[in-house]
Amino acid sequence: MTRSCKISSNSSWVHCGYHLTTSIVAPPLLSLPFAFTFLGWTAGILFMVIAAVVTFYNYNLISLVLEHHANQGRRMLRFRDMARDILGPPWGRFLVGPIQFALCFCVVVACILLGGQCMKTIYLLSNPNGSMKLYEFIVVFGCFMLILAQMPSFHSLRHINLVSLILCLAYSACAIAGSIYIGYSSKGPKKDYSIKGNTESRIFGAFNAMSIIATAYGNGIVPEIQATLAPPVKGKMFKGLCICYAVIIVTFFGAAISGYWAFGNQAEGLILTNFMDSNGKPLVPKWFIYMTNIFTIAQLAAVGVVYLQPTNEVLEQAFSDPKSPEFSQRNVVPRLILRSLSTAIGTVIAAMLPFFGDINSLIGAFGLMPLDFILPPVFFNSTFRPSKKTPIFWLNVSIAVVFSIVGAIAAVAAVRQIVLDAKTYQLFANFVIGHQGVDEGTSKSSSIRSSQCDAQTRSFRTIVSQHIKSRH
Fold first, then answer.
1. How many domains are there within the chain?
2. What is the pTM of this model?
3. For residue 123, what is the domain's CATH number?
4. Domain that holds residue 290
5. What are 305-325's pLDDT values in tens digits?
6. Nearest to 37 by CA among 212, 224, 181, 165
7. Hey, how many other C-beta atoms are within 10 angstroms of the C-beta on 244?
8. Are 210 and 47 in contact (CB under 8 A)?
9. pLDDT digits (tens, 9 = 90+) for 10-69
10. Residue 324 exposed, middle or buried by CB count within 10 Å (0-12, 13-18, 19+)
11. Any domain includes 184
């Protein structure tokens, strides 16, 4: 491996907490109230708790497996390394590796897309008759990310990720405060918590909602984050996860509960959309919407750079010289070119495909579900081989089986949604969050649907959470 792409193992457990928080707690958490519209209060809160417990448990399983193999002299730095050494080389090369790479790059695209949409929201609030198109803002945001992408290693992102942690708390607080303000005001919609739709749409909607919630907790780079820890790593990952999940409890549950309480089954794919009425008039002060979107934009850049790391590693492993110093001209020039190229490609895709959320929802079902819900218990059972008479064996098997079923149904639902939305797809479309003005010939309903799907791409995180579904 080249020096330029080598993971620097100098982080403390606090830095680990920053990295984990940035990779999980992202703006797609603002789509959680939308998931509740398909589940209702009881099922929505219950599944959020289940997803939190399962992912916290699974990430600790991954940590234990990585630590066990490292103590035996086989250090694994990525999901594909784990699949190769534990399940066999074909699993790492042909399945897990490509899944992780595709997933992480899709999160990058989704971050750029949502960042551009947030920038255009600010623009239209200050200049309602402005003529700038969405793709222009996507390019601006992509240039901002291109600068941050030049950070040499994952460890060097620790200060950016600390700021990211503060930002996610900030815009979550704004979302909660805005929802409560509108919920108590006379301007807010009438609260209705009934689940709409016929039997078919309600069933698919429920599984879509489960997938939205599950992927909101997703993290496709846990091994890379653990690899940044300075030895000995024992107990550090657990402490980092505790930091992360403390933030998750405050942000995820706060935004989901307050948003659904305020807007009921009118909650949109991104709760910020509900801060504008049907005529595009803000229901909260304009400065409040400006502030919330600025916080969101800044954190999206950090999330995108974190998920760009696997792409950087693959490219730099192929083109850098391990015998030359990390900051020599031989390594700096290729790194600058390759990182700029990968960011530029992500920016072009985001500008061309503002309906990317529907596609990303399918990738989320095939990507985040296996990496975060299915493979960790499989890795643990294959590594430690607990007796079939022990509860932990059957607990792990149950988690893998249940979420395999949920992932399969979510994939079917994602394909169904792509078919339903296909007629609204348009290259370089000019959709925007929370604004009713759209391009000539584009309907209001397709604008809302697309802004919802854009808001839900996460990654992975898909983002930046995905699975946007129109109400049928």
1. 1
2. 0.87
3. 1.20.1740
4. 3-455
5. 999 988 888 888 888 877 888
6. 212
7. 26
8. yes
9. 889 999 999 999 999 998 899 999 999 999 999 999 999 999 999 999 999 999 999 999
10. middle
11. yes
